[in-house]
Each structure stands twice: as structure tokens, then as C-alpha cells.
Structure prediction request, 204 residues.
Amino acid sequence: MRICLAVILSAVVSATALVSTQSKSVRVRVQTELGDIVLEVDPIKAPITTANFLKYVDAGHYDGGIFHRTVKMDNQPESTVKIEVIQAGVNPDRAKQGFPAIALERTSVTGILHKDGVVSMARGGPDSATSGWFICINDQSSLDFGGNRNPDGQGFAAFGRVVSGMDVVRKIQAAPSSTTRATNAEAQRLTPPIKILKVVRVSQ
Prediction:
């Protein structure tokens, strides 16, 4: 009887520990040539988006990746709704090795709004996000559900925040971009891109 009770108690403790581990926020260090950025992603409020991002992290797709886009108030010739973000992507050599697109977790559901330092997924249409992600500089409410940066009004999937390294984020935003200003894509291209050396999970 005592042995059975001990086994049951052990199983309960193990299950509790597993749930506790899964419920914790996860920290990720993004090592760039301009310094480190530490992100804290939220598997409770944004489970689909967080799991997708960590899948790319754990598979090493962001190692050798780049910050390729800086969006500033003066380089959005095609946009009436202005935002400020920097955008990153996977190692270009692994661009064709990605995972399927994920469902859009709207900010109206997650409650994670696009405030200063918030991390979110890049997308075109709804349910199209794969590996690209961005960091907000200053509050960007037009990226939330109901916002009008994207014409569909569905917003973007925010899933975490910067906990260390906003100075590096701002350095990346201030880095040189293309001198061609005909389109957003041309004007916002970091020239040269900022290299991502490695992206790894870190202990709390």
C-alpha cells in the first residue's frame, strides 16, 4: 500500500512539474553583431505563435539569420498609417526549409498588445505567418486587432516582449537603409542587413 501511494505521489509531483514547466514564459537570446537582445515569449497567452517561433529557434533556423528591415517614420512612402518596427528572418540558406504557416492568434484573444518592445509575427494574409518576426519600437496600436495598418483589420500575432537589449533594437532601427524611396520595401531594406549570430533558449 505504501509503495502504491509513493508511486501515485511521485506521478502527481511529476505531472505538476511538467505543467509548471510548460506554463512558464520562455526566454530566448538573440545574439546579433550589434549586441544581444533577450526575448520573453508567452506559451500561455499565445501558445500557437510561441510554439511556432520556438520550433524555428530549436531547429537553428535563425542562426545566421538577419534583421533585414527597419521601419521608421520617414521611410514609409506607401503607407498612410505609420509604424516603427525592425524585422528579422531566418538564415537565407534555410529559407526553403520552413514549417507550415500557422493560425493567426489575434490580440483580441491573447491580450498581448503591440506596446514598446513587444515581439510579433510578420504576415501577409490571415493564417499566413511562418518564420518572420518583428519588434515594436514605441507603442503601435495600429498593429492590434481592429487596427488599420493591415487593411484586413485582423492585426498581427504578438507573442512576447523584449526584456533586455532595447538599446540594441534601437541601434538596428537606426542602421542605414536603402537610399531608394520609391516603395516601402526598397526604403526599409537594411543596407547591409544586421547579422544574427545565434538564437537560443536561455534559463530564467
About this structure: The helical segments are 2-23, 47-58, 107-110, 166-174, 184-187.
